[in-house]
């Protein structure tokens, strides 16, 4: 009789184990599925984090409520192992015990990890938002500086000061690239770990920050090019002006010699002047490019009906119109005979 009673008790225990395991399997599958799903954030703010933590807390309470049932099933398995005589039944019960224990431990670990991940997500969001806020504040100030540069219609000295200022500013922009790269790195991590918001606010912030920085550095580069071009034109002009003044001094001596000490005819004098002009062009090519040849002037003056002999020496220097507003030309009349005046020369120039 004791043996029959023992068999009945074992049978009842096995039936109870089957019922409990059937219920647990359904619950285990459901909770494992919930814990395996990635956390979807609708918007990037603290209220969304609180909402996800509250949802996680509900799952945690559900897990804790089933802890008693899991412990009961594990104890029942241990009891059946003592009452089971066959090796196959022992193996089956042991496998059930190990599987249940493993899944239960895994669920507990996943629940804790999920809660910690949500909390960590909020810390990463805070760090990202703080870094982006500082970068955005700097970017706004930089955009205001770049919006109103003194790069056109300014004196030469002010242009040089602006050039120095914007070269320093350009270095600051390049240095800020480190901060922008840090923000991009943070966002890439959030995206890789599924910690971004479905409203794409974080993505939009990063995209806007990159686009604004790129536009800023392009604008600064354009401002620098404009300033450098203006300064180089002014320096080229000053250099050309110095060359011309030196040449005019030398030419004045030669003209005095041709006018007062040379007995050659007018054509020979013109040839002498053309030779001097050619030498000037060899010595100062940039300046000579803006000088009208004497032969051209002779044709121009002749077409006006004025005798060349009454206006023998005339040199006109022109500047290129590029970059200068308005273009200018310097007229140098050199009187050698008669009563030709500066106003008369300018009338034909």
Task: Describe the protein in words.
The chain is built from 10 helices and 2 strands. The chain has helices at 2-36, 46-65, 67-83, 87-147, 156-192, 201-261, 266-283, 285-288, 294-303, 342-348, and strands at residues 313-318, 329-334. It has a two-stranded antiparallel ribbon with strand order 1-2. Mean pLDDT is 78; it is low at 306-349.
Give the SSE map.
Blueprint: H1 2-36, H2 46-65, H3 67-83, H4 87-147, H5 156-192, H6 201-261, H7 266-283, H8 285-288, H9 294-303, E1 313-318, E2 329-334, H10 342-348
Antiparallel strand pairs: 1-2
Helix pairs in contact: 1-3, 1-4, 2-4, 3-4, 4-5, 4-6, 5-6, 6-7
Main location: nucleus
Pfam families: Spectrin
Subcellular location: Nucleus membrane
What is the gist of this entry?
This protein has helices spanning 2-36, 46-65, 67-83, 87-147, 156-192, 201-261, 266-283, 285-288, 294-303, 342-348; strands at residues 313-318, 329-334.
């Amino acid at each position: 009789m004791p043996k029959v009673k023992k068999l009945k008790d074992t049978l009842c225990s096995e039936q109870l184990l089957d019922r409990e395991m059937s219920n647990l399997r359904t619950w285990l599958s459901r909770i494992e599925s919930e814990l395996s799903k990635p956390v979807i954030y609708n918007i990037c703010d603290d209220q969304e984090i609180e909402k996800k933590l509250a949802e996680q807390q509900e799952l945690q309470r559900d897990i804790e409520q089933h802890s008693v049932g899991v412990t009961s099933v594990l104890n029942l398995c241990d009891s059946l192992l003592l009452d089971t005589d066959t090796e196959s039944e022992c193996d089956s019960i042991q496998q059930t015990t190990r599987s249940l224990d493993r899944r239960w431990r895994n669920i507990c670990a996943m629940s804790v990890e999920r809660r910690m991940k949500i909390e960590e997500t909020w810390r990463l969001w805070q760090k990202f938002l703080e870094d982006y806020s500082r970068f955005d504040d700097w970017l706004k100030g930089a955009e205001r500086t770049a919006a109103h540069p003194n790069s056109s219609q300014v004196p030469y000295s002010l242009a040089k000061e602006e050039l120095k200022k914007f070269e320093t500013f350009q270095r600051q922009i390049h240095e800020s690239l480190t901060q922008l790269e840090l923000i991009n790195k943070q966002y890439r991590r959030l995206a890789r770990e599924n910690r971004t918001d479905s409203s794409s606010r974080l993505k939009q912030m990063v995209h806007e920050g990159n686009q604004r920085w790129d536009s800023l550095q392009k604008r600064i580069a354009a401002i620098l090019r404009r300033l450098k071009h203006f300064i180089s034109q002014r320096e080229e002009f000053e250099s050309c002006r110095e060359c011309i003044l030196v040449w005019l001094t030398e030419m004045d001596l030669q003209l005095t010699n041709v006018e007062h000490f040379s007995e050659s005819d007018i054509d020979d004098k013109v040839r002498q002047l053309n030779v001097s002009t050619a030498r000037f062009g060899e010595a100062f090519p940039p300046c000579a490019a803006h000088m009208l040849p004497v032969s051209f002037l002779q044709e121009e003056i002749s077409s006006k009906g004025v005798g060349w002999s009454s206006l023998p020496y005339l040199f006109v220097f022109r500047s290129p119109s590029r970059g200068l507003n308005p273009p200018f030309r310097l007229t140098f009349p050199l009187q050698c005979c008669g009563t030709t005046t500066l106003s008369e020369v300018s009338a034909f120039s």
